[in-house]
Amino acid sequence: MVDAATPAVPAAEEASPFNARYRAFALTILLGAYILSFLDRQVVSILAEPIKKDLGLADWQLGMLTGLAFALFYTTLGIPIARLAERFSRPWIIAASMALWSGFTVLSGRAQTFPQMLIARMGVGFGEAGCNPCAHSLIADYTPKEKRASALATYSLGIPIGTLLGLVMGGLIADAYGWRVAFYVAGAPGLALALVAGFCLKEPRKYMSALATSQAEAAPPLSVAFKVLGGKPTFWLMAVAAGLMAFVGYGQGAFNAAFFMRLHGDELALLAAPYGLKSAGFLGLALGLIGGAAGIVGTLLGGWFADIAARRDARGYAVVPALAAVLALPSYYFIYTVENPMTALWLTIIPSILGSLWYGPVFATAQSVVPAHTRATAAALLLLVLNLIGLGFGPLFVGLLSDALATLGGLGAAEGLRWSMVLTSLFTLISAAIFWIARKTMVRDLVS
């Protein structure tokens, strides 16, 4: 078991055999994989209204498709795949996973009923479960400790970039060719990049003898990994806090397009017309470019701030996201209550920046509270917690609350969704409090 007295990192582990050029090359491939995973995951949100009309769905069913259906396999399969990653080639696990989720994305475009779409989205989650645990642990093995938060933040750019591409591409293609074609186009690139990942990424264990002294050292039993993490309250606090931020982010992200269509549909049509676009295409461009660019800035700033803060005090890993969560809250209210749709769209810059500052600090913390041979398992457990809370229940909660306010509350579909989005944003305060509590054990729990 690793405890507070364990040396930070053995010298053999700290000395990476990979030069800066290869690390940048590998990080680019992994970033490409993450971009495609989020593109395939988020394209559903811009297609929500046409899918709802075509398949005759309720909001809770849209919430299932964008959240729980995907998260069911994505979260539960992460741990067994991570155990494979502790023993076998992580690059080839990533390659196989990419081919699988890309194929199911294409099949999403063939769905004729809600159950068929549900199975297809579950398949996407099945495939994507193999990417992050492997990628996080590879990046941690490739990268010196002092640059870990920045490297993981760079990888996390896949979230805003993939979301940007999914919204822009999905909206434009849906306007021109229909929502089904958007799924076909979203799934195709992953099949090609899967081959690149499998053949071009290197498995560090082949080059780092300290990690391959014995099979037991390279891959300790799962019970040992759980025991190590069980004594790390920082890990669990950061995971739950990040999960609540994801709960708000995924929940609102899944319904943002639907919100603008319902509340500002006529204004959107007028805004789109001068550019020769329809409402979905214009909205996809606006949400994708504004939110995506802001998310890129926030992700990079989060990693940069965390690395700087942690050099002075390791508690900076928790302080940065705690402050960001508090500062983000007021903007949510104004986005969903202002009358002018362009003002609302521009206001999304604020939560897009502040809501992505946590990626680098949280992912770096998870990789730093365990020794190198347990990193993939730590990443999988982190992703299980935050995605089960955020991705699994965020969209479903927003959809259920929207339906309840619309029918039982008598607000109607548009106002029900508006106030569902506003009320959901309050969870950022709980997240901020938990991040702040994590400061107390941060210094004691970091070991590598």
TrEMBL record:
Report the Pfam families cross-referenced here. MFS_1 (PF07690)
The source's superkingdom equals Bacteria
Does the keyword field hold Transmembrane?
yes
Domain named Major facilitator superfamily (MFS) profile is located at: 26-443
Transmembrane parts of this sequence: 20-39, 60-82, 88-107, 152-173, 179-201, 235-260, 280-305, 317-338, 344-364, 376-397, 417-438
Q: Does the keyword Membrane apply?
A: yes
The way this protein sits in the membrane is described as: Multi-pass membrane protein
Report the PANTHER family cross-referenced here: PROTEIN SPINSTER (PTHR23505:SF79), SPINSTER (PTHR23505)
Q: Which SUPFAM superfamilies match?
A: MFS general substrate transporter
Q: Which CDD domains match?
A: MFS_spinster_like
Localization, per the record, is: Membrane
Write down what this protein is called: MFS transporter
Q: Which UniProt keywords apply?
A: Membrane, Transmembrane, Transmembrane helix, Transport
